[in-house]
Amino acid sequence: DPDLAAKGEKVFKKCKSCHQVGEKAKNRSGPVLNGIVGGAAGTVDGFKYSKPMKAAAEGGLIWTETELAAFLAKPKAYMKGTKMSFAGLKKEADQLAVIEYLKSVGE
Ligand code: HEM
Fold this sequence. Notes:
107 residues; mainly alpha; 0% strand
């Protein structure tokens, strides 16, 4: 849905201080998010994750849309000890829109 992805690009402004996407994306204080929807958690090359994110990765966590929405709603409630210092996206519409945007940026 291109309209939802466009809305999600605006929501992604809240993420840009820490995350990059696209061909030239680099890890910043947060990992590159290319291909994150449907991808394995905690596996971006060269990024130093928190202990709980590493544990989730070892446990096989996959960022399905459902898991991502729950994480983005309240990161620190979803994953105690995550180093993602972000209060969260309260509105379900914003969660869904940013996920759609992340899908559109692909690999
Ligand atoms: C991790 C998305 C905002 C810093 C992650 C992950 C996702 C994500 C999907 C997991 C990545 C993986 O498993 O490889 C988002 C989105 C945001 C957002 C969509 C905006 C709505 C932020 C902000 C910051 C931040 C504002 C910095 C203040 C981090 C850090 C991690 C992370 C440090 C690693 C967490 C850990 O190792 O526990 N983010 N993020 N994020 N993000 Fe964000």
